Structure formats: structure tokens, C-alpha cells
Amino acid sequence: MKAISDSIKRFDFDDKIQGKAIYTSDYHLECMFYAKTLRSTVPRAKIKNIITPEIPQGYFIVDHRDVPAQNYIPVVFDDQPIFAVDEVNYIGQPILLVVGEKKEIIQKIINSIHIDYEIIEPVLSIEEAEQAKAPYIFKNQPYFVKYEYSKGDLDKCIKKAKKVISDEFRTGYQEQAYLETQSMVAKYDGHTISVYGSMQCPYYIVEALKVALGWEEDRIRVVQMPTGGAFGGKEDYPSIPGVHAALASIKSKHPVQLVFERQEDIQCTTKRHPSLITIESYLDENGTIIARDMYVKLDGGAYAGLSSVVLQRSILSIGGVYDIENLRVRGTVYATNNVVTGAFRGFGGPQAFFAIEMHMENIANQLNLDSVELKRKYFFKQGDLSSTSGEFFDPIVLNVITDKVLKMSDYRNKRTHNDASKFKGVGCSVFFHGCGFTGAGESDLIKPSVRLKKVKEEVELFISSTEIGQGTLTTMRKIVAKVLDIPVAQVAHHYPDTLECPDSGPTVASRTTLIVGRLLQDCALKLKKRWDEESVEIIHHYQYPSHLSWDSKTFQGNAYPDYSWGANVVEVEVDPDTYQVDVKGIWAVFDIGTPIDRKIVQGQIEGGIVQGLGYSLMEVLESRNGKLSQDTFTTYIIPSSLDIPPIMSELVENPSTIGPFGARGLGEMPLVGVAPALASAIQQAIKCKITKIPVIPEDILRGIHK
Amino acid sequence: MRIDFKLNNQVVSIDVEHSKRLLDVLRDDLNLTSVKEGCAEGECGACSVLFNGMLVNSCLIPAVNISGCEIVTLEGYRGTKRFEAIKQGFEQCGSVQCGFCTPGFVLAAEALLSSNPNPSKDEVIKGIEGNLCRCTGYQMIVDGILAAKEVGKGLW
Question: What pTM did the predictor assign?
């Protein structure tokens, strides 16, 4: 490894290419039992009675009565029970487990259990929640949280404005569709419970087990197994199957494996939030945007989960990359009897950037201006104040990024030329992703730590950050090896085991390289000074940068420790007979500071873009009467190799002052900007406004024939 | 029911229940865990195996149908020179991320290259359409197979 950005062979490559990596469903322990979950089939009801058949010897029912301490999953509001007690609030909510040796017998028992429900009128959409037709689900209110913040003086600007431009946008659900479904194995040895599984955040499961069991942490061990994709879907959700498998193992006194079927996984695990977003821009007599009023509404489903944090990211992103002096930003996440929504790559950002970028496009159209040039006028630059009035300390190179993506894609020529020809279009989006936890969350909530151990010439690094395909097992070693100036093979790093690894925080929020990587860099610097010692162990803790500040009540200050920036161009051709969209190419330029491994970075970029393409164009997922209509890979369509256009990406290297070797966060951002660039391209092709994603042929038909 | 078949170059004779899928027999009875269950309906290709040299989804094949046939899984394939070429191509091009779909893609590459040793990029894209990957966006897998074709010239 000459430079930190030079690619090396991934440390997880050999096991994976040979099919030797043992994923959770491949993990078989002696005398292992299986578990299956009985779930609610109705969106909202009281459970009147549960009629169970006679259970054969060696088989067990596990339900809320088997939770020794507290029956809730700890996530922000702690409102979701581990097992339903006397009510259910969404289709797929777990009621009980059947546990035993043979899967066929378990299924027979499940089939013969009858639940007697008393149906309660459900709340099935944002609108129904607002109208409060049915009884409230969460406390005495139709929503989990609502937030508001502002900058400057909106009311004054409203009076002064000569023109108002308004838009309303809708975005749909999205399923993470990791190829490996949720899976856990738990083993109770009479004293300690060990949970092995597919996950992003081992310490979330430790916390959930502490709540459920009421045990001290020294009796709880969580180990990440090789994980077949996650994308946010294995952030908070695995706490449920993790605790379930543990309770099943404690009761049955056997190791227990709990693996979801695909349809079950799609029906009951967390999804991306559907949104309804309105934006009003106020313009003066010169056509300058002087103020904006923006409102983000999300469908949070039946339990709060991470919805409040997702909403925060959404309202902190909705201003886009634009320096507008007067703003009012509001957000509400509603409680409904739909599936619980939660973390998914981008975490509220993709909805917001779709809305703000399309809105800018519409302003440009109304003013008869080129949309990229309009956007440029308002681009943030170093020293500007963000929408929450936090100073941008690092250089912001949005003009460089935009120029580059326009040149690569021949945007200008295509945009002008396309205007003349029918059903062809090209669109451009510009966006950021705030990296790390919101505000001072890294120091106030997460308090991450890392550990390095040196014995003779060998170094081992211990973090709870997980390898979920994004390269953690390789990039973290590279950072440590580079600081210590030793061959990377001399640094060991294994899948996290909470017995050995300090809590370096969850593997979310594009924070692993930025925050954990930097902690390892600083820890390795300390170790370097003590290199002469035969054996050394150093634990290093996070400190919030002193030049940043955040007020979580008023939403004022530096909303994120760092930002990554990007621009996309998408070119399309729309078939005038079938209304199908043929994506001809996607171009992307990102400022992620210094890339830690170019090949891994390319993989994140291309994978994220394709997931964004699915979100924008293909992945229709609708809730009808609380049930998801597309719940298999036959009906929920994710991109295949045939759906992929050529993807061209480049980096602008603008080193961060926060991250290791100048790196910024990357994982989520490539998904964020695809939808608006694609929708703008379709808008140009069919000369009709696109106000929702995914854009499906029916929308185009309606648009063309309007 | 007792069935005999050739598995990874060895003759195997086992009792199978009528209800079992080939996928269950391979994973549960024979502990061949490179064969993954992704969707159980033939959409994702994670359970791909070679059935008389053809790429099939083992979740769709009743186990009793393999009597007298030849099945190859990654466990049987990974000792071959052809595998080494695919491995090298995939390593060069960053074709592996979470790895769950990888065994299926390796066998899809083998099935493609054995029927067409010199595929164009479009033919590779067509050749892997039955295998889903949610991490890479496919381009780096396509590049990996094109690189494998060069590395393993003459092997197919």
C-alpha cells in the first residue's frame, strides 16, 4: 500500500468467493432448535384470546410472559413491545414464537394456533392520521414527533415577495432487499446468553437484551456473523429477532436459530418512510429566492422506532445545497397502522433531496432559466451559514463538482439538443449528505471508543463497527497500518464480538470511516509513540470537535460533524408507446474527501446509485389496508443486471479536516441524488411535471396525455 | 425415497422426503452451505447450482428429480482452474461486497463461459440476469467476469 487510496485485496474476499463464509443461517450448533414467529394478520386489533393446540413434548411457545424483565425494544421512545400483549398495531407484529427441533412440526403448530381478534379501526395513511378518524395509536396525538426550526424572518419576506412558487411531492416506501434475510442464532449456557447474527449494531442488541432480561452486561454476548447486506434494515430491527432467539434459547435450553423467510422479511421489517413534502419559495421582483417555507410529513408506521431521527435528517436536508437567508422548516412523523418504517441508506435524505431538487427545477422552468445556473447562484460555500445557522468551516467545492459532472455527461449539449427532440431528456441534481450522528449526537449519545492491542509486532484492532459488505474489515486495517507504517497484513481485525470490542457506535449514518476511522487513526498515533513497548493496549474515546456546536431543542448550529457533496446527471429516453423509461447513462461526481480505498469506494458508489435507480423507477411498494402488496421478489422488483445503464463516476478530492487522512462519509450519499436527476430528465423528455417517485409508466401516460 | 446422483464429482446415495427441495437436501442434509436461500421462489439466484452443467435455482427443483443427474455446487467447483480464473477476475474488479450472492454469481459465470467462452459485455449482462445482487450495482461483477474470461483463456 503506497498511498491510503490505493486499493488492496479485501480481507473478506477469500472466504466469500469460495463460499466458505459462514452466515447465520449456515451456522449449526449441536442440538440446535428452530423458531418461527406467529404474527398479526390484521393492522389493528385487541387480542381477545389465543387458542393453542396441545403442544408436543420438546416444543415450546414463547411469548410476552417469557420476558423476565421489561417487554419493550429500546429505540428512542421504547414503545414497541418485544411480543404483543393484548393489542396489535400492524400486520406482521410478533405475537409469539413456536420453538422446537423440526421445522415441519413447528409450522403445523403455528398453523393450528387461532388468534381471536377484536378489530379496531386502523389509521392507514398520513392523511387519515391528520384527520384523526380513528383513535390515536401513540399517546394522545396523531404523530410521534413534530419539529420546527427557522432562519431569518419568513413572515417579513412573505409580505415583500412578488412571486410564490409552490410544489407538493410524494415518495413511496422502499424495501432494503438485502439478499440475506434477518437471521439470528442464540445460545444460553445456563449463565450467559450469546447471540450470533446478521446485524449492523451489536450494542443495540446488547441494550435490548439488558432491557428484556434485566441482566448485567457481563452475562450478555453479541457476535456479528458475516452479514448478507443491510442498508439500514439491520440497524434497529435485529434487536427483535435477537431478543426472540435469546428468549427461545433460555426457555428451551437449546441453541435456537431464527431465520426469516423472504415474504415474512418484506412484510414485517422496517422500510423507508413514505413522504409528503410541500415547499413554497418566495421571490422578489428580480426573481431572487428570498425565503422558503417547507414541510416534511412522514408515515412512521405503528411504532416510533428511529422515525424521529429519520425526520431530523429529512428536515436538515430539505434546504438542499442552497444558501437561502429566510427559512421555516417543519416536519411531522405520523403514527399509522402500517408497517414500521425506519433506517434505509440515506435516512430521510433521499425524500428531501428529491423534493428540493425538483422544486428548484420547477422554479427555473417558471422563470425560464437554466436550472443548473439557477442552482449555482445559491450554492453553499465555505463560511456560509447552513439552514440551521451553523458555519461551514471546510471548503465547499460544489462548482467544481457540478462543472465536472456536466462535462463528463455532455449535459449542456444534450440538454439543449434534447429540447428539440421528443421523449429524450437529461437532468442534473446537486446534493449533500451529513456524515455522522445529528448535531452533537456522537458525543452526547454514542460516545464511541476504539481499542488497539499490540503484542510484539502484531496489532489487533477492536471496534463494534460491522462489515456489511462496505469494506470495514479492510479500510480500518488500512488506516491503522498506514499510521503505524507497518504492512496491513500485520494488523488483525475480526467480526465484532461485544466480549472484546468496545462500543464504537452503530454502523450507520456514513460514520464508520469518518468517526471510527478517525478514532483509530488517533489511537494508532498514541500507539506509535509507545511502539518500543513489547505489549501495549490503548482505548481511545471520541471528543466532539471544539469548533462545532449544536442545540438539539432549537435545531441551531452545526447539524452534522461533516458533509459529503455530490452531483448526478441522468439521461433517459421514454418510449412513447409503452411509456417505459430507458436510462441511457448515469454520471456522478462526489467529494468524499480522500478515498480510503478506490475500489471499495467505487463499489459503494455504483451499488448506491443502482439502489437509487430502483427507488426512483422500479421499486413500487404500496400498503393496502395495512398490508404491503408487493412482498416477494416476484412482485417487489429490484434492479437486475439488465436494468443497469452505464455508470460513470469520479471524485473531487477535497480533504476533510475531520476524517482520517481527509476522508469523509460515503455509504449513503450515492443513493441520495439519483431520483431528482432521473425525474428531471423524465420531466424534460415528456414536458410534464413529475411530482412523485417511483415514476411508473402509468404516471408517464397520464403526464403525456394531460 | 432413495436417490443416487453425482454431487461434486462423487456418487451420492441418500434418502429424501418427497416434499424436499434440492436446496434443502444440499444445505440441511449434506451441509453444502455455499448454496444460499435468498427468496425461495427462483427470483434471486442465490441458490444457483449446476444441474448437468446448466445453471438452475435449487429452490425450484424437487430433490427427487435429481436422481441419476449431476449436481455441482461451489464446494465442488472451487478446486478447479476455472474457479481460480473467476476468483482472480472478481478480485481484480471488486465484484464481491456482502458475499451472499457471490456463490451464485460464480456458478452463473461458469455456466456462461462454458457455453460461450468469449462473451461480449452484453452477453455477460444477459448471462447473469437471473442472479440478483443488491450491493454492487452489477457493473463490477460484469467486469469481473470479463476479466476472468481473459485470465482463464483456453480453460473454457
Answer: 0.98
